[in-house]
């Protein structure tokens, strides 16, 4: 390792030594990242896995093993049935609609000759905005009396709109809906805000996907006899957007699983009327952090990780399968 | 199969006039190349024929029928694109089948899975499969039918694109620079194949290229386009030997034609570098230039019109091109010689070059070919003396 | 344009729904409580002078005030002086609703402190992410070493784990270490960005090896290569990643909500907003929307100024 060493064996210098030195520096360069990955991502998963079989609480010195009791509760108690219902309602509503709207908006915007950037900017605004602030703004808009939504609906009362729309007629008679307080609407309002916030993101990804579709393909499709816009969409656009779609669906569903801000903003306690918006993240927060029921919180965490893992594995499988695209 | 007629096709994009009134008759079964530098409007013209773009004025007739306003999918044309434009998610076989499926199957029959259960779908499907395998055999790609375009080489993709074009019997084939993405060797090979295919199918081919060699080797006629106009449309030999326009003469031929400024003397007699020639032009011609193909120049004794120094050789094996710097000329003069003459043409040697006046192409100041050439009377006298 | 009108119609309707809550937020931040209640006043409200009752109550004159003021109002009895003082206070406490809302936003809660916390937390997170991710990404992309595939496999595996999902065990760990309610708790879990490593590695793969070899020939150590060659070439990618990271953590609500309880000094803007909402009665809607506007504005303005970069940054995750 001294200067004389290197002078004495130049061959060693050129072959073995740099490789070894490179190996050592490589490990030094990756060590911090590795350590943090283990500490912050892997260890917590392991800890959650272990704690999910205990009745541990913060502040207690010990804990008891309770076997699968926590998981058993998750699968049998009605609170958790509500949790799964709310979570899957949210994910299965927000994902397809925000993906569909994102695709629709992207196709419309892409076919325009002017004002494209303006629409793109506007639709992307919610993605940037602090969700909790915007949730509060939505809360005002949906306010039963002073909210603009009900005020607008009330304007339809007594006009021809009422006759065409029985739902409105009913509410004109009985009073406008309590959007956030009504069990029938609560989760759908939360879904709506989720879609409002997320579809611009999908739109931008689809717009990027559309620019990669070769223009000559559309010409070829035209020459080949694809006469309608729908046929060209089926023959060229949709297959070309396949990889984008797989990705957009994955990321949308993972984001939907993580919904929390909206629900905490609307319902600081209780997650909506009759726990109708009791999603998993909220349950983790409420059980694990607020009520210090770490065992059950960990079990929900493990379930949550299981769902996310499943979605990602499906995505990777789809991507692998279509590796020969393009 | 049908002929194509273009009448006064013009196209403007905003302020720019891309095509300025193009008229061209293409006979049934003819192979016509549109050749010109990039931006000359040749691709736009092809796309107007295809119906992918609308002309600003003028009309396109296919098989005698005006197709203005008829959309591309209804014109019954096949097209091979520069990028091949293969559908990346479909196999080679499916790609070739697309034009048939789109035309011969109903929307219901095309549905995935259920489609094949529709009445008549099976029989049609078999017909299509037969046509696809026949096209694939013609192009020698029957082994690739199950592959996706992403797994093919450039040459193979090119064949698939051709296959998709010839799987049905279109009124004409349109080819938009189909060889430009191939490597040089494959290009030469495919060139011959396309020409053979044309002979075999006896179909109308319109071929767009910027490569004059492709145009020269494959076509019945070449339409040389520049600045949105067809400068000349004639058989390859005619375009080369007898160009109508200086720009045609310059564009066709490699190495480029040599251009010498000529002075017009008494009685229209031309002289080059102060050396009188046995050529006279109608009086009043100005800015006359003489075009000489490299093979028109011969090494001569002193006293020839051009004297210069050999500055560079390009030996292609079969041919030898020598670049000669002639004092007073801006461009080097290129001379084609046989490699046997290599010994007499040393680098830095001074050579004298002469040419047969009959081989000289004379252009006026506007670049138009001057055909009304005479031999000056005085000259005949001198010749007699000599 | 003629055939596009229906597309514009659809898109404009969509745009109205998208913009509506922004409009409401900003509009409420300008209006007086009465206008909000009655839903009138258009976008800006009428901006009529309003009296801040709390301010008036604070200046309710007591005996000493009256005694001190008696010099200013010679020949008046105490009651008259009290009235005069009260009307003075009322005059001083009346202001335009917009001014009222925004001044309340900053005085009712330490909004500036929250904003400063937001800046500190987001910037430290980004800086630490770069310090950790960049060398690792370089090693994974450009150095050959035994175990490289395994490390990269681990990175790919960790991409599956959203940090929010493991919030509970992280919270337990931090609580055990006594780190809850500290800046560290806000920052530490985000220091490792597996996505950042992945992204930077993909970027570094495109940097020619010759550049690194040239650095080695010039006598640079591997560390020097990371910071003096790779970092500058990665600036565009880093910028996109910076936007991705800053937007995510400025807006993050879940994690601060878990680890910061009660200690207002550590509140990030979203937490501050929630606190505001918790204590707000009808008269505070204006100020609450004013602070919401203040919190949302920085990113929106930055976005409007550099849209392309922002869209690129936020959708980075789409470039896998």
TrEMBL record, chain B:
UniProt source species: Pseudooceanicola batsensis (strain ATCC BAA-863 / DSM 15984 / KCTC 12145 / HTCC2597)
* Keyword Glycoprotein belongs to the record: no
In this entry, which stretches build a coiled coil?
none
ABC transporter domain residues: 4-252
Lineage of the organism: Bacteria, Pseudomonadati, Pseudomonadota, Alphaproteobacteria, Rhodobacterales
Q: InterPro entries, from UniProt? A: AAA+_ATPase (IPR003593), ABC_transporter-like_ATP-bd (IPR003439), ABC_transporter-like_CS (IPR017871), ABC_transpr_MalK-like (IPR015855), ABC_transpr_MalK/UgpC-like (IPR047641), Mo/tungstate-bd_C_term_dom (IPR008995), NA-bd_OB-fold (IPR012340), P-loop_NTPase (IPR027417)
UniProt KW keywords: ATP-binding, Nucleotide-binding, Transport
Q: Where is the signal peptide?
A: none
Q: Which GO terms describe its cellular component?
A: ATP-binding cassette (ABC) transporter complex, substrate-binding subunit-containing
Q: What is the protein name given in its UniProt record?
A: Sugar ABC transporter, ATP-binding protein
Any one Pfam family here would be: TOBE_2
Q: Which family does it belong to?
A: Belongs to the ABC transporter superfamily.
Biological process terms from the Gene Ontology for this record are: carbohydrate transport
Give the GO molecular function terms: ABC-type transporter activity; ATP binding; ATP hydrolysis activity
Automatic annotation (TrEMBL), chain C:
Instruction: Tell me where in or outside the cell this protein is found.
Output: Cell membrane
Recall the taxonomic lineage recorded for the source organism. Bacteria, Pseudomonadati, Pseudomonadota, Alphaproteobacteria, Rhodobacterales
Residue limits of the ABC transmembrane type-1 domain? 115-306
> What UniProt keywords apply to this chain's record, in alphabetical order?
Cell membrane, Membrane, Transmembrane, Transmembrane helix, Transport
Q: Does the keyword Cell membrane apply?
A: yes
Entry protein name: Sugar ABC transporter, permease protein
Similarity comment: family membership:
Belongs to the binding-protein-dependent transport system permease family.
InterPro entries recorded? MetI-like, MetI-like_sf
Task: Tell me what topology the record assigns in the membrane.
Answer: Multi-pass membrane protein
